[in-house]
Amino acid sequence: MKHIRRTGLIGLLCVLITLTGVLTGPAPKATAIGEATFTNPLIEDGADPTIEFHDGNYYAVVTTWDNRVVMRKAPTLEGLKTAAPTTVFSDTTPGRNANMWAPELTRLNSPTGPRWYLMYTMGTAGNFGQQHLQVIESAGDDPMGPYTYKGRPIPTDDWNIDGSYLQLNGELYVTWSQFTPEPNRLQSNYIAKMSNPWTATGPLNVLSQPTAAWERIGEPVNEGPVPLQKDGKTWIVFSASFCGTEDYQLGTLRYTGGDPVLASSWNKSAGPVFSKGNGVFGPGHNDFFTSPDGTQIWNLYHANARADGGCARQRSARAQQVTFDAAGEPVFGTPIATGTPIAVPSGERGPITAAVEGASFEVVNRNSGLCLTVAGGSTANGGDVVQGACGNAARSASSWILDPTADGAYRFVNAATSKVLDSAGCGTADGTDARQWAWLANACQQWLPTPIGDGGYLTIANRANQKVLDVANCTTAAGGDVRQWRPLGNACQQWSIRPVGPVSVVSAQSGKSFDVPGCSTATGAPLQQYSYVGSSCQSYAFTATTGGAVQIRPASASSLCLGVNAGSTADRAAVVQGACGTSAAWRIVPLPDGAIRFVSAVSGKSLDLDNCSTADGAALQQYTTFDNICQRFRITR
Predict the structure, then answer these.
(1) pTM (two decimals)
(2) Is the N or C terminus of the chain more exposed, i.e. has fewer CB atoms within 10 Å?
(3) Number of domains in the chain
(4) 432 Cβ contact partners less than 8 Å away, ≥ 6 residues apart
């Protein structure tokens, strides 16, 4: 974004507040998987996009204008159009609880292993003049979090926005945009060395200023600096001119050697490298990502479909490939027209074998009580899928990551082999074998879990042919073959799912975790949501109970279970920890958008976030099912 003219600011803010008052709901369905092309735009209302491809999925974040950091996840670019916008972090702390702009998602090494860092701009409700960079850190290696707030990286109270990480010469740097001191007061790009991903140290140096005519259209602006690196060369790509004009555009700073915090170590392009064209206006504030096979670099940017689209919510996220000339310089080309088919990034259609991020589930047959597993723990394509002993381990061959395809289906990724559940040869006949195979982005590898009535069981249908997973001849023996068959309505075709190992449960609305106040061990202590801190009262184990349901046990009080207070059937009845009886049984319902609904086995009502609040301490209760985001949750490792 991000320069906002002070004139007309109040009117713009009122419009944005009105628009952000609507709660995010389920994403629409579409058919996106396996296509050879995609079209732009990818995300409507998608200003300042950031993206990474990691372990089989794209992860994208855009400006939200409110107090939430919202992520979309999909195995294809086209899938981002329908991927559910899921809150991974929200903040109600005064001074950093409004106007979320310009997120930047980066994977960095930490003392405890790889972690994801989201640097974004947030400030105070009611004005844009108090915007500052903020940093959150993932608990593990999953870009979806959960996340913990780490701090403000720039150690001043000056307005600072559009932060990004640069790794160069074995050091970590932060680049961002702010105004230079009076009397010039130009919105410029800055750079500083970092001691960790949330702390800038040393001098805060000007990296570039808007001095050329192409950088001063509307207003003089340099902002949105982001690194591009290839074959030992480094560029900072930045946005120039006022974001409200059709001439917002990209320029480059090429690193020429020496100390990176000195402007003299960088050479600015003679003119813009990516400007309006083909009916696409104001292309800027971008990020780069690598194709799934690592052979291509792509540019994700925002732009308007109209010359008067402005600097608010008309901007959409778009992608196209960056090529390189004989001298190794990047060639950005011209924006590709809206709706034009573009070949998908290389490798997107597979074969991909990736340790997809997410919580592991056991898939348990109702008739036998055995788990869906890979015979002998084979890692080969074609490894037979059978029923067998439940390993009760997150990385066992009997554990599966239920990974949404962003258009209503799931791929079942084996947690031990990283291969996906597959219908052999895309067969359509009864008896076609279920096996594992590398991801090929076809419908034969996509599955539709569907609840049976109001019970805790599911059928799991193949998307390509609508036939369901079936245990051959209804055997109860370990090693019994699993295949597909027309629906018969028997217990051999019915399955329950339960998370494996200690997990966290977070709200899709707030990004905040299940939590017991003060990690109390007392019977009757209420369930609330709270910012993730990694405490024992934010860690839960799931155990099987009758009817395909589960019990949910806090690690801080493992002999107790979460249940509806006194077995009430009333709306707003509190959820508390207590005896692991009938009132503590929950059905897990996987939803088409990848979220989970928890339904009380006693009342048939859904676990609900009171008033859809993003505040710490908001109560979790039961309520009549409304299929809204207040009743959607994610289970994370």
Answers:
(1) 0.94
(2) C
(3) 3
(4) 423, 424, 425, 467, 483, 484
